[in-house]
């Protein structure tokens, strides 16, 4: 019962965070590890838990997405599928001991990205140059997303800025579409490999969906800066905890 409460609470809060500012995986992944799920299975199950929210997020930007070049969109989607599968397969062949060592560094990286995301995007925009090898970086970002979902939204927004995009609504729509696609590829790979803890995943999916709805309503009332501060604090605390576990 305690485990169920922990998982539901973490997923509910994660859904709310993702709706407002992102960073929900900082809660779902540690909660699964806390309840005894092995780290690699916890990462896979966490990806399943937050997966539905990306679809609803993408639907909110249909107008912008319809105006986007269809061939470019298909290319980005295709790269996301390939990268999502490659990243999830990389996770599956990573020894648990290695992943235990890598996790705190990934959490720290994601936390720093979340903290500096706005500055990173502003710096890229100030350069005023579109990236020439967009397909390669899109593939690499997708591999990262398939391997470890934390901070993916920030990385994608920075990627779009580097490719010369300036419409924030379009960028957010693309971010949700690619997150959904590569997460779908990862979830399918994890499911076929049998590493997902489905009982925990289904419970967390429901809680995260409810949390996302509540978070979307709260987003109009709660200062985003406050929510971002909470996400950063949670990220730093979780990073410290996992560094201590890896010692």
From TrEMBL:
Keywords: Cell membrane, Membrane, Transmembrane, Transmembrane helix, Transport. The chain crosses the membrane at residues 29-51, 72-92, 98-118, 139-162, 177-197, 225-244. It is a multi-pass membrane protein. InterPro entries: TM_pro_TauE-like, TSUP. One of its GO terms (cellular component) is plasma membrane. It comes from the Bacteria. Its main location: membrane. The keyword Cytoplasm does not apply. It holds the Pfam family TauE. It is found in: Cell membrane. Belongs to the 4-toluene sulfonate uptake permease (TSUP) (TC 2.A.102) family. This is Probable membrane transporter protein. It comes from Parasedimentitalea marina.
């Amino acid at each position: 019962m305690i485990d169920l409460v922990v998982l539901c609470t973490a997923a509910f809060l994660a859904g709310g965070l993702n709706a407002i500012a992102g960073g929900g995986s900082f809660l779902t992944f540690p909660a699964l590890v806390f309840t005894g799920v092995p780290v690699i299975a916890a990462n896979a199950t966490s990806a399943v838990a937050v997966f539905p929210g990306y679809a609803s997020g993408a639907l909110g930007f249909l107008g912008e997405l319809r105006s986007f070049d269809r061939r470019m969109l298909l290319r980005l989607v295709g790269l996301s599928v390939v990268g999502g599968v490659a990243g999830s397969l990389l996770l599956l062949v990573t020894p648990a001991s290695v992943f235990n060592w890598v996790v705190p560094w990934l959490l720290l990286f994601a936390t720093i990205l979340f903290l500096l995301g706005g500055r990173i995007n502003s710096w890229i925009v100030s350069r005023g140059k579109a990236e020439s090898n967009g397909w390669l970086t899109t593939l690499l970002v997708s591999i990262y997303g398939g391997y470890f979902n934390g901070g993916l939204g920030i990385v994608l927004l920075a990627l779009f800025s580097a490719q010369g995009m300036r419409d924030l609504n379009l960028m957010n729509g693309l971010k949700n579409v690619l997150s959904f696609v590569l997460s779908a590829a990862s979830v399918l790979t994890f499911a076929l490999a049998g590493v997902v803890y489905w009982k925990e995943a289904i419970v967390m999916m429901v809680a995260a969906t409810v949390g996302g709805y509540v978070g979307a309503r709260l987003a109009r009332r709660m200062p985003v800066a406050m929510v971002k501060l909470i996400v950063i604090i949670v990220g730093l605390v979780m990073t410290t905890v996992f560094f201590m576990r890896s010692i």
